[in-house]
Structures are given as structure tokens and as C-alpha cells.
Amino acid sequence: MVSIRAGWFPRWRAPAAVAAGALPALAFPAPALWWFAYVALVPWMLLLRSAPTGRRAVLEGWLGGAAFILAVHHWLLPSLHVFLVPVAALLGLLWIPWALLVRELLGGIPAAGRVAAALVLVPAGWLLSELARSWQGLGGPWGLLGASQWQVPPALRLASVGGVWLVSLLVVAVNCALVLLIAVPRARVPAMAGVTGCAVLTGLVWLWAPRPQPSGELRVAVVQPGLVADGPDSAERRFAAGERLTRGLAGQSVDLVVWGESSVGGDLTARPDLAGRLASLSAQVGAPLLVNVDARAADSPGIRKSAVLVGPQGLTGDRYDKMRLVPFGEYVPARALLGWATSVGKAAAEDRVPGDTPVLMNLPGRPDGRPGVRLGPLVCFESAFPDMSRHLARDGAALLVAQSATSSFQDSWAPAQHASLAALRAAETGRPMVHATLTGVSAVHGPSGERIGPALPTSASTARVYEVPLAGGTTFYVRHGDWSVAAALAALAAYCVVEGLRSLRRPAPEPSPPPARTARGSAARRVR
């Protein structure tokens, strides 16, 4: 019986780790079961705490991490095909330290001190994996656990204090406390204290954190042309659709018109015809146009993606070149080694050229006396990076604008996932954010992360005007940055130091005596 059970148990655990690791993906859009994030890690953590060996915890942490990456990014399969599997396997390695922490701190019957340490260090270990994969070269901070709370006002208030990182820490801490409540009856008191502490922290932040102070509003129009069939003239047809929709805004007293990513297929300095048409549109509408050029530059080598501001007199000179490019979508990392990815998927055949500096653009004042404002443009998945929007807000941006295009993933979870990030960036910075796309989902969020007006779904081809509230003041996160990250890393470092000192003080095991030689044993060896 023992041998059968020992052989069956490991075979069952591996698929369980895969299934448990994939569960948290349901908390993100499109399912958007935000509440599920607070229990989604429990099955995985229960499995890890019962791992019979550290090696087993390493395997199950890796399998669960790879499954999480595949589940959250499954919509990349049409582009990357089989290449997504080795990418997920590589990124899954980042969850190994967290898995070992779960086994060490939650395994067995932990004492009160170890329970308290677990409620701090297990969330910090999870955050370590999020930080590592947030590097652009590993895909960027897509699918951070805290981002699943984009529509929860108390969580957005937490983000204004410690960024999305603080929200991730809170979510994992709640999961950790639930594991203790389920698996360790003796630890229920400190576990309940942990849950209560999370609730009290959220309540204190809700009461104490300063709210954005209203300072006027802007009328911003989002132009979403919708799907345009591929073909040699698709860029011109997309431009014409945006042009037609923008003309319908005439007489609506808008302050800014925003087009999506890659809405213009020719360099405007080399295409005076396109620049002239945009200037004419700006004059008709009575507002500048923020368009996005995806074209080979006339005055420099390579293709760039650029946010360009156009007024009634033509190009204003305000231009931002996208700095953080999408791995494989806009460039192939280590192309000499990984260039074969272009033959099995839709990886970029040519690397785009990144920009080198953020840019603030100036919107002119209105004839009624309202002063101009400064806007901070971002392009595509740059809206996933908290540091970029934070720096723009700190430098004086009153409005954040992200131009995006998720046409390749139209019927997947990607458009909704991408649009949800605007709520986090708005809440973190205390600045409203406009997320404008070619084919949806387009959305606008106010300075507290709240939704402004209805989102434009992927089925829409329209232009819509939003009354966007502006806000003054500065959030704690903009002032102090990633302090929650520093605190988590400091806690992990302290734990490593303490464990290292304990291992040095622990006496080395005495060598075991050699086995006794017996006449029977010697005879047996001779027979063999």
C-alpha cells in the first residue's frame, strides 16, 4: 500500500500545480472576477506547503508559474505559436523562490512568530517574481496580481499610496492568511489578525490618503475607426476612417482629439499631404489632434512609433517616440539567437527604433480663457509600466494619454486587459488617463481611477467626447515612488541574513561511524 501511494502522489501533484497556477488568470479581464484574486492562490499555496521536499516545491513553483504566464498571456498564441511555451517555462522559474518561502514558512505547524513572518515574507516573495518579470526584456509588467483590482475603489486608493505593488502585497497577504485558517488550526488567531490588519490598513488609507482636488476639466474626443481589412491600402483606409469620424466632432467644443496607435502610416514630415489633411481637420474641429505615426522616418534610419501633435497650422513640433518596445511584437531580443521566432509566428521582421526620452506636450488655452495644460503621451504597452506615468506626472503632466492598437488580438482577453491598466495609472498618479485604440477597448479614467463615461467596445467604430476631470495635488506614490517595493525587498534581505546567521551557528553534524563488519555481512558481500 505504501509503495502504491508513494508512486501515485507525485504524479497527481504536477498537474495540480499547473491547474492551481493558472487559476489567478480568472481575476483579470475579460472574466474580471476581481474578488477571486483574494482566494485564487490558496490551492497553489496549500500544495506548496505540503511539498515533501524542497526539490518538489521548486518543481511545483516552476510549473505553477509557467501555467500562470500561459493563462494570462494565452492570447499571444496566434502570434508566438509554440514559442510561447518556452517563454512561459523560462518566466516560470521566477516563482521558485516564492515556492520555497511558502513551504518553509507555512509548512507543518508554524509557531506564532513564523506565522507573522509568513504574512510579510510570502507576499514579498511573490512581489519579487513580479519585479523580475517587469523588466521590459522579459515582457514587462503585464498581469501583475494587483492590476486585477482595477475596478475596486479601496484598492485604487492603495495604489495612490504604494502603486500597484502595494495592492499585490495586500492580495497575497490575504491568500496567505486564508491558507493558515484552512490548514493550521493553531494559527487561526494570528491569521485572523493578519486579515484584520489588511482591512485596517485599507481603511486607514481610504480615510487618510489625500483625494485628488478638482481643477477643471477637458473635453477629449477619442476616435476609434474600428477594424480595417488587411491589404496594400489598409493604412490609407484607416486614415480615411479616422478622418471621417473626426469631421463629425465639428461644433462640439472639444479641447483635444486622440487617435489610436499606428493611426497614420506615413512620416508626416515626408508626407505634406497627410499633414495638411490633419491640419485641416484640426481647424474644422477647433482642437489639436494627437495622432500616432508608425512609419520609416525620413530623416533617420529605421521605423519608429511616434505620438505627434497636429494643430490648425500643421505640426506643432511636439513629438514622442515610443521608448519601450514590445518584445517580439516590435523587436526580437537577441535576434541573432532568437530570429527563428519570425518563421513560426508573427514576430517583428524588423526591429523598431526606440525613443530615448519622455516628452510633455503643451495644449493651448481655450478662447474662453481656460488655460492650457500639459499632456504626457504613452504608446501601447508603456501604460503597463508604473514608473513611466509616475515620471510624467511628477514632471507636470495634467493628463495622461495612451495610444494603443490590439487589432491582432481582437477577439481575445487582450483589449480588456490593456484598457484596465489605465485605471491603475490614473489612481497611482492622481491624473486622468485616456486610453485610445484603433479597434477597442478604448476607455477614460478620472484622477482616482474611476471610469469616465462608457468604454468603446471592440465592435464600435465611432468618435466619442468625454468630459475629463482634471486634478491638482500630488499622490503619495508620485512623491515617494516604490517605497513598498523597497520595504518588501528589505524584509526578504533581513530574512536571508537571519537564516544565514542561524546556519553558521548551527553545529555541524558529527560524522557517522563506519558500518560494523560482521561475519554474515562479509559472507554476503563475497556471495555478491
Any overview of this molecule?
The protein is built from 18 helices and 11 strands. With 528 residues, it is an alpha/beta fold. It is globular. It starts with a helix and ends with a helix. The model is unreliable at 1-8 and 521-528 (pLDDT under 50).
Short account of what is shown:
This protein is an alpha/beta fold and 528 residues long. Helix content is 46%, strand content 14%.
How would the blueprint of this fold be written?
Blueprint: H1 2-22, H2 42-49, H3 54-72, H4 77-80, H5 84-92, H6 96-106, H7 112-133, H8 153-183, H9 188-208, E1 213-224, H10 234-247, E2 256-258, H11 272-285, E3 289-296, E4 303-311, E5 314-321, H12 335-338, H13 341-344, E6 361-363, E7 373-379, H14 386-394, E8 399-404, H15 414-429, E9 433-437, E10 443-445, E11 462-472, H16 476-480, H17 483-505, H18 519-527
Parallel strand pairs: 1-2, 2-3, 7-8, 8-9
Antiparallel strand pairs: 1-11, 3-4, 4-5, 6-7, 9-10
Overview features:
528 residues; alpha/beta; six-stranded mixed β-sheet; 11 strands; 14% strand; disordered N terminus
Could you tell me the number of beta strands?
11
Q: Determine the structural class based on helices, strands and strand pairing.
A: alpha/beta
Termini gap: 30 Å
Order of helices and strands: HHHHHHHHHEHEHEEEHHEEHEHEEEHHH
Number of helices: 18
Given as residue ranges, the uncertain stretches (5+ residues, pLDDT < 50) are 1-8, 521-528
What is the radius of gyration? 27 Å
How big a fraction of the residues is strand?
5-15%
Q: Assign a percent range to the helix content.
A: 40-55%
Q: State the shape.
A: globular
Report the major sheet: 6 strands, mixed
Question: What is the typical, i.e. mean, pLDDT?
Answer: 90
Output the strand order for the largest sheet: 5-4-3-2-1-11
